[in-house]
Amino acid sequence: MIDKLIVDTDACIKLGGSEKFCFLQQLLPLLAKKAYNHRHVYTEEILRPASVKTQLNKLISDGFLEIIDESTLPVNEKAVFNAVYNALTRVMLNHNKPRENLGEAYSLAMAKASSIHMFLTDERDLQPIIDRLLNTGLDDINCIRIIDIIEKIKLGEIEGFGRKQAKAIWRLSEKSTEIFDKKIWPNAT
Description:
The protein is an alpha/beta fold. It has one domain: 3-Layer(aba) Sandwich (Rossmann fold). The chain is built from ten helices and five strands. Strands 3-2-1-4-5 form a five-stranded parallel β-sheet. β4, α7 and β5 form a beta-alpha-beta unit. α5 packs antiparallel against α6 and α8 runs antiparallel to α9. The radius of gyration is 17 Å and the shape is globular. The chain starts with a strand and ends in a 5-residue tail after the last helix. The mean pLDDT is 91.
């Protein structure tokens, strides 16, 4: 289990987007000792479905999830935040869609400034950007994606979850059931 994890919008929506299955609320405490959302992600990007906010609010009330932003950082950490945020926005923001990837930029800058080494996201192309711009061998940040969670379940590293739950997570993430059944976790019938 990792110490600290910051969670992106897409991971929250994919894991928490079901009223029936509270995967976000169940999985985060099994992945890390403490989880964080950047305030921008929590207030501006996670707007629906309502089940996501319900699960996040439960994690907050349990003292597991904390909403953070740069306003509380000490001066030296705020300088790191600003430098990382500016570097990321130059590379990640699309001028035609200026709000796209803003949550990732805020979250990654906060992670770098606060020494949070794990970033739960489902952005497939983000790790190379992180490696190129942020990872220097000191306080490196690594992405955990939905596929990584499925692999952990498959290896028995996440207690209480099996193939059935992994497939439900995969389907809620709007990924191909056929790929899951044929390549990721073939059913041994």
